[in-house]
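dumping the sequnces here before i forget
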Amino acid sequence: MMATVGLGAEPDPATDDRVAQLDALYRIEYAGMVRLAYTLLAINAESEEIVQDSFVEVYRRWHEIRKPGAYLRCTVVSRCRSALQRRKMRPWPSDEELCVSDQASDLWDVLTRLSQEQRMAVVLRYYGGYAASDIAGMLEMPAATVRSHLRRGLSTLKKELEE
Amino acid sequence: VSRLTDRLERDLREVAAGAHPSPSAWESIAARLGDDEGSEPGLVLAPAPGRSKRPVWPAIAAAALVVIIGSIAVLTRVGDDHSISPPTRTRRWSTSRT
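..and the predicted 3d for all of it:
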């Protein structure tokens, strides 16, 4: 069964002790968020920086947000998306840098050739375990568009991996 | 498709396992919390879940309309000031003929 990244218990945002609450959120979410960001970006330092910036953002807005965990996930994904847009002209890290098996390396090669929206939708669905409606909120697009990106992404992956 | 999605889940987990979350990350975050305490929030990259995007164009259109109407009003006033008023002709009608 596929686990969903970062859908653990939500710390209580009504508490004034923001640092303690953020610490609790950190313990639940940090490692999972870094892995999710890494699966989108493939660069460890960049992934950590984005997740740490996102925690600081959550701290600043603690009293304005109802679900810190959900806000954190949206912020991480949104920042990863911006990083990918800035990165458009730079090559992806090679599979040697990723240190994965040949099979995962083949999949990674095809994944990096998908459009950014298709790749993000596929990673969030099949690594993150999020539903299309959750991904729609994170990527700020209609759920039908997310489903369309997923369908096209899977179709390309199937075609390329079977060749 | 299920074979493909199974492979996707497995291979993406393998990629994700290459991430190495720093064990001292909390210290880095906690050190920044004090710095950010008094500062105003900067650029918001992610909207709060459920918050709708407001279109900017009505505000821009309203501002443009104000500028256009203002310009027309100013130009009309300037035009009025510089318009040549017809000279007041003083005709002297001789009331008595010699």
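The first helix of chain A runs from residue 18 to 41.
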